Amino acid sequence: MSTPFEKILDEVRELYQSDAIPWIVGYSGGKDSTASLQLIWTAIASLPKERRTKQIHVISTDTLVENPIIAGWVQVSLQQINLAAIRQDLPITAHRLTPSLENRFWVNLIGKGYPAPRPKFRWCTDRLKISASTKFIQELSENYGEAILVLGQRRGESQARDKVMDQYKDSTRARLSKNKDPRLSRVWVYPPIESWTSDDVWEYLITEKNPWGIDNQELFSIYRGATPDAECPIVVDTSTASCGDSRFGCYVCTMVTQDKSMQAMIQNDDQKQWMQPILDFRNNNLAGEDRSVRDFRRMNGRLTVFREELVHGPYTQAHRKKLLRELLQTQRVVRNADHEKGTQNIELISIDELDEIRRLWVEEKGEIEDWVPRIYTEVFDAPYPGRDLEQSPLDAEDLAILEQVATEVDAEAAQELYKLTRSLLAVQFQTIESHKRSKHLDRLEDVLRHYAFRNEDEALAFALSGSKDKEQDGDASDATAVIA
């Protein structure tokens, strides 16, 4: 049975005044988190000023690869929250959280070569969502001893969600439950709309005016334009589904076959057709089978066999270059779509991320061709605006000669021979620049091990001839996830 919203308001007021523990409200901009925050806001605003003593932090994690419509909606909402809280003299502060540079999607996919996430290798959730929110919640709970986390979770959304909520039902403090994540052991969980249905949520949002000034009817219109009706929740642990079932969330999400919500937005609204190139990029580059564009080695050069085949590791250099080029081309097309719609402000990948990808390619992978500035200039017909990087003594003409010589020496394995020689030279150049030779021989040995085989068939024959270790006897889920 659904709890009347008036009773929830009474409950919120009682909980808020019962102790000095600060509150954190998870806000994704979707209907459930909006309803939860609206209930909290309304209850606290009804208290006398002298009783509004506890700070309430509203946190929203922007993965930087969100559906642009939803990302824009959330950004405006957070601004409205902070302005309205000041005007109404409420202890509420909104925070937009983002993943650290090394955790961002394009840095890992294009920079390091991590394959697009799959159900058996969902590397994105922790890096993009959990890490940023957990860091904020952890720091706040440690500073104050404890914290209360308000989540817009409802029973009946799915069996998976009900199972997660069952973990919190045995509360030691009435309506509060301890968080199951050991990193958040000082955090209590409070789901105010736990008993509500989707209809309950919409009835409340449409009939009760939003207190921080956004139009809930506009939120309803966003949902009406995207099918099915779901939202991407605030994620604080791996047991909570991050996205999927066409939830509003990352446009790069490969947990589902199709991004039905974005597709529906484009089909249902002429004003949103500028997103089609983004959807095309996702469908053409991230949603399909990718084994053929992945290296037959792991990042560290090791070989892993599963069912008489090598388990492929990170994306090849050629494919990473292709992904970067097509992503930048997509950004160019979207920005030129229609300035009246503000699409010129859409940023699919930032300069900071491009700089980090460039560093990973040149310094960690030894790809001294330094392709990032060249690709950027080719796409935008403008100089690369990122920071400078120490230049290799070899220019493009030198590397072309090296590639030609490799072909003459061994035409069948020319690319592997070229990459071996280029990477050895890269290590040598970096050692000279840093003036540190302590690990120089180790790094050279790593390169030699990495490029020890002329082709995949030779590497597989070698791997099969050796003894089978635990890694090679693992199940399919282990094999799918092998990258590092």
Number of helices: 18
Averaged pLDDT: 87
What letter string, H or E per element, gives the SSE order? HEHEHEHHEHEEHHHHEEHHHHHHHH
How is the biggest beta sheet arranged?
6 strands, mixed
Question: How many DSSP-defined strands?
Answer: 8
Beta percentage is 5-15%
The secondary structure category is alpha/beta
Strand order of the largest sheet: 3-2-1-4-6-5
Helix share, percent: 40-55%
Gross morphology is elongated
Amino-to-carboxy terminus distance: 49 Å
The residue ranges in which pLDDT falls below 50 over 5 or more consecutive positions are 238-246, 470-478
* Rg of Cα set: 26 Å
Description:
- By secondary structure, the protein is of the alpha/beta class.
- The chain is built from 18 helices and 8 strands.
- Helix 2 packs across helix 7 and helix 15 packs antiparallel against helix 16.
- The chain is elongated and about 80 Å long.
- 37% of the residues are buried.
- About 4% of the residues have low confidence.
